[in-house]
Amino acid sequence: MKKLSVLFAAVMMFLAVGVAKAQKVASLDVAAVLNLMPEKKKADDQLTALSNSKRAEIEKQMQAAQAKLKQYSEEAPKQTQQVNEQRNAELQKLQQQIEQMQMAAQKDIAEKTDAAFLPIEKKFNDAVNRAAKSNGWDFVFDANASGLIYKGGPDATAAVKKELGL
């Protein structure tokens, strides 16, 4: 019985090594491929423009609020307590509006980013799948990932670029 257990363990180890050797692994420089895609460049440019316009709107509102704060601070000694309290409430409301604008801008940019990159990601993944199938790779790892310890297998970057027509 003991010999049978040892024999079974040896057969299992042999099969495991055989299966491991049968699997083909490749690495891929994901960032390099994505940066070559014209769709990504266009999406990056559009998102940068959107971000800059949102930032400009918020800065404009902040400058207006700062101007009011300066004006109200200078006039405060000449005003009644009631007027100063109303002005403080107005300034707090402006601050809340600016914070809401910032949150809305972040949400809008995040939604636009997701919408812009979804088709790019799909196209990229489809190209990786086609390249892996045509080259017989079982696994393709990102060459830039910190979890990759050894990069000795074939490089899939050229094959994926070919699938994307880059």
TrEMBL record:
Source species of the chain: Chryseobacterium taklimakanense
Signal peptide positions on this chain: 1-22
GO cellular component terms given for this protein: cytosol
Entry-linked SUPFAM superfamilies: OmpH-like
One Pfam family cited in the UniProt record for this chain: OmpH
Name recorded for this polypeptide: Outer membrane protein
InterPro entries xref list: Chaperone_Skp (IPR005632), Skp_dom_sf (IPR024930)
Keywords: Coiled coil, Signal
Gene Ontology biological process: protein stabilization
Coiled coil: 55-111
Family: Belongs to the Skp family.
Keyword Glycoprotein listed: no
GO MF term list: unfolded protein binding
